[in-house]
Amino acid sequence: MTSPSLKTLVALGFGSLLTASLLTGCGGGGATLESRSSMTTTTIGKELVDLDEAYKRGLMSESEYNKARKRILERGEN
User: Fold this and answer.
1) Is the pLDDT of residue 8 over 90?
2) C-alpha distances in angstroms, 41 versus 38, 46, 47, 70?
3) Sequence ranges of the domains in the chain
4) pLDDT: is 39 or 43 the higher one?
């Protein structure tokens, strides 16, 4: 059985966020339009913990884990 790559996991996460954003923005047919937006923010520490958990569960290879970890840490330096 092949485990999903990090790209697949990230795509699923963004797809879920996009769906939630679209559903909360439906205004219906009324005269008043209310706009709602949803944004999720995570800390670098939380991203690293989630990444580590995914690696330990066998959802990504060591190479994928190391590349993703490096990207997260580099993003935190900026």
Assistant:
1) no
2) 10, 10, 10, 19
3) 6-77
4) 43
